[in-house]
Amino acid sequence: MNDQEIGRVRALAGEFIRDRRTEGYADRTEEYIQWGVGYFAEFLKTRDEDKLESITADTMHKYQMHLYNQLGRRGEPLGLASQARALMSVRVLFRWLVRRGYMLADPSSGISLPRRKKPLPRGIMSRREIDRVLNAPNVDTPLGLRDRAILELMYSSGLRNNEVRSLAIIDVNTAEGEVRVRDGKGGVDRVVPLGGIAAKYVELYIREARAAILGWHEDPGVLFVGRFGGKMNATTINRWIVQRFAGRAGVKHSVTAHGVRHTCATHMLKGRASLRHIQRLLGHRSLESTQVYLRVEVSDLKRELKRCHPRERAAAKGGRPEGVPQWN
After folding, report:
1. Exactly one of 185, 190, 244, 280 is catalytic; which is it?
2. Does the annotation mark 117 as catalytic?
3. pLDDT < 50: residue spans in the chain
4. What is the rounded distance in angstroms from the CA atom of residue 307 to the CA atom of residue 68?
5. Closest Cα to residue 259, out of 146, 166, 121, 133?
6. What domains does the chain contain, in order, with CATH numbers?
7. Catalytic annotation, pick one of 210, 261, 262, 267
8. pLDDT of residue 25
9. Residue 191: in which H helix or E strand, if any?
10. Is the pTM of this model over 0.70?
């Protein structure tokens, strides 16, 4: 396909993305679509189709095979999640092109997205570990009090990294114990509970530390501000707060900001919270996303089985199981 027609594809993709904004799609969704369309445009440069309307189901099949064999930035094969994201971007674009009358049929309708494995949540801490992490910041300093408030909030309410960074002061009601998450994943707002201890530290941060950190800088309009008065970035939360204090607390395994969210959900489940309540807390669209924590519970159950079941205790002592004959 020549450069002029590829330019037309990119222009239509831009129009499509502008339409998505009017429908309330999140910025992250737009980024994924732009990324996926970019991959598709590079693929079209190697094809003989002269126009967008010439793309067929066979073209899309070859594109899927192209993605399967594509290498990522690190020289490794493109992961299944990235392949699925690239294909989905093109699928939603073609559906829009058909609805708007640019194409008569959708050549991507027969594409089956690759099935992605759902790994167990990583970075889950024990009760003792998360307690040590929460107590690690020095709350006698403004930044330490801020960091303690962030950690308590993340563990209490299961917020994502970007959700914490996007909070405004008015989004947190410490008196009522509520947090309003605006424009969460998928552009969905939700209200989640805020525990009493977390509310206390957030209130202390607002009253005693925020103005000191902000100093003479212009207020960025968010609850948690960086050391230079601006909005915090993802690395600050992840590396300089969560990972730094996990290291100080002696946590040996890898921990991320998302691991604190996983820890919150896992401890809620161990405390007999229902999956539906955890789903609402985390802002999952479907219960399937929340059920992954049941698999974590099975791992714990196996350990308890070995520790508590009389047959397992006997097996741990070694020797031949009872009733099994000795063969010569």
Report:
1. 185
2. no
3. 328
4. 44
5. 121
6. 3-99 (1.10.150), 127-305 (1.10.443.10)
7. 261
8. 61
9. strand 190-193
10. no
